[in-house]
Amino acid sequence: MMTWAWLQGKKPIFNFVSERQDFFQTDRCLILATSFHEYTAPEERKPKIKLQDQHQFKLKGEEWFWIAGIVKEDLFTMLTVAPGPDIALYRDRQIVVLPPEGG
Question: I need a surface site. Which of 19, 26, 59, 95 has the fewest CB within 10 A?
Answer without folding.
Answer: 19
